[in-house]
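mind reviewing this fold:
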Amino acid sequence: MTSAGASAHPYSDSGFARTRRDFRAWRRTRPFWAGLLVLLAAGPIIYFPYFNLSLGGLSVAMSTTAGAGSLVIGLTLIVLAGLLWSQPVIRFFAGCVAIFLGVLSLPISNFGGFFFGTLFAATGGLLALAWGPVDEDIPAGTDGSEGEPENA
């Protein structure tokens, strides 16, 4: 019995490997990390205006009158993250709105979720603006420039 016919990766056709490969292919066709950061930005923006901390008999409430505004900003960021993942064509619009909402959350939502929400929203929005689809027409091994290959 020889190993000449054996596969180098005997479990490469398992369900986990196939799911991971499919997820990687899906992730590369859209601004995944931009959407993830915009989604993470919604957490502190929504959470901190409704935050209550009890230290013994002392209760510290971070609630503000703009709690509804924080909720609207956070839910809009969640929707934008979903749109970045499902409709990558609108990445420019979603990126601009995410940056705007992140900056807008500074005065409305306890300094934008203590700056965490603002930083995540701005970074995710900028990543959405910078992301571009991969051009599938370029053959492998070339850089897409015109002219002679380097090793010719």
Observations:
- The beta strands are 52-55, 58-61.
- The longest strand covers residues 52-55.
- The chain has a mean pLDDT of 81.
- The helical segments are 15-27, 32-47, 67-86, 91-108, 110-114, 116-130.
